[in-house]
Amino acid sequence: MSYVKPAELVTSVIDAGVAKVMLSTRDTIVRSILGGALLTLAAAFAVTVTVNTGAPLLGALLFPVGFIMLYLLGYDLLTGVFVLAPLAWMDKRPGITIGGILRNWGLVFVGNFIGAITVAVLMAIVVTFGFSTAPNAVGEALGHIGEGRTVGYAEHGAAGMLTLFVRAVLCNWMVSTGVVLAFIAKDVPGKIVAMWMPIMLFFYMGFEHSIVNMFLFPSGLMLGGDFTIGDYLIWNEIPTVLGNLVGGLVFTAIPLYLTYARGGAQRRLGGRTGRRTRQEAVASAAEEPSLTH
Fold first, then answer.
1. Burial profile 13-37: b = 16 or more Cβ within 10 angstroms, e = fewer
2. Of 257 and 287, more confident
3. Taking the alpha carbons of 59, 242, 116, 137 in that order, is the dihedral positive or negative?
4. Integer CA distances (angstroms), 98 to 64, 89, 91, 139, 232, in order
5. Is-above-0.85 flag for pTM?
6. Which residues contact 123 (CB under 8 A, 6 or more apart)?
7. Helices (H), the chain
8. Measured between alpha carbons, how far is 157 from 154 in angstroms, rounded to an integer?
9. CB 212 within 8 A of CB 134
């Protein structure tokens, strides 16, 4: 397995951030829809495994297949661009602006939601035979997950909101670590092993991921969950998005930039300066699928 040292790895991560921000609207939307769909299908898979085997650890062990497929295909998820785009801005890459970053985040959010809600509808059809029967065991599980993770938090008031936010922070600390670790190896097996570890951890620990929740909670509403759209937005999705943003920035993007990338223009990597031009970054990202999640 080829190992990439952290200083070199961070340069590649920043290049990927440049490519994400500069991507066209069409490509960003298409990649985000498919990214949200693949990740949430993996979540449905993990719930199915857990229900059928009674082993939550096995479901968590297998969930990262969605993240792996995302990376290999170069699709986008909001939790990933929360880290990649700000790193490009912090490194003062040409053409990277706050407006461009917000545009990227908005497009990815919309695309992810479309992909997630599509899978939610398709899975609801599967577990109810086209809404002609009561949900099967997997459908019942999907229907009730959202209750504890909305009204369950609400029952504890401010303490519940704090717990929800912290779980979202911890989630994207792990997910964004997986984003970065995808660059730590040059071969596919090495990338898979590196990414697998933090993604398995976040899923098994029950941390809150905004894109996974875009699937779980609409599924719950369609399958008989006892909560409302307002419960979902106020007591899960909005705080989760904010927590994911904080977790990715505070625990991954900023520390990596401060310790490895700051002053990167003067750091020579392989005989070249660490900072690349916008054109070089986009060209480099085009040669290898950039990480999304």
1. bbbbbbbbbbbeeeebbbbbbbbbb
2. 257
3. positive
4. 31, 8, 13, 41, 29
5. yes
6. 44, 142, 215, 219
7. 6-22, 25-53, 56-62, 65-73, 78-90, 98-127, 137-148, 151-154, 157-181, 188-204, 210-222, 229-232, 238-248, 254-256, 278-287
8. 5
9. no
Phi, psi (5° rounding) for residue 3?
Answer: -105, 130
What is the C-alpha separation between 69 and 67, in angstroms, rounded?
Answer: 5
Residue 84 tokens read as 């990649």
Query: Does the structure show a pLDDT above 50 at 273?
Result: no
Sign, Cα dihedral of 207, 105, 64, 35: positive
Give pLDDT, residue 229.
96
- Residue 71's pLDDT is 85
Distance CA 103, CA 202 (A): 27
Angle (nearest 5°) at CA 82 between 88 and 287: 55
- Tokens representing residue 275 in the block: 């900072």
Q: Residue 270: which pLDDT band, with cuts at 50, 70 and 90? A: very low
**Whole-number pLDDT of residue 2:** 85
279 Cβ contact partners less than 8 Å away, ≥ 6 residues apart: none
Q: Which of 72, 74, 77, 71 is nearest to 116 (CA)?
A: 77
Residues 90 and 120: their CA atoms lie apart, in Å, by 36
Tokens standing for residue 85: 């785009």
Residue whose C-alpha is closest to residue 199's, from 85, 77, 106, 290: 77
Look up residue 34 and give its amino acid. Answer: L
